[in-house]
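User: Once you have settled down, look closely at the record that follows, taking as long as you need, and be ready to discuss the fold:
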Amino acid sequence: MAAYIIVEVDIHNPVRYEDYKKLTPGIVESYGGKFIVRGGQTEALEGSWDPGRVVVLEFPSTDQAKAWYNSPEYSEAKKIRMETSTAKILLVEGF
């Protein structure tokens, strides 16, 4: 069953965050993942949700999504993300 990682990011250091954006795609792909949404324009249709940036990743399974997130390859990129932004990250099963 497919799994999706949904990320809401507020970027505090956009210049350094660019390093994160460069590192991440190859690592995501190496774990079978792909970007579905990567920072496009958002519009709240209900409620007062106003995220700074939204990213959606698709993986073949929750195990692969977790393997990517906890991988040694992603650890350096994750460190940059955590230093340059604040994020909410959700893993959800799809179909």
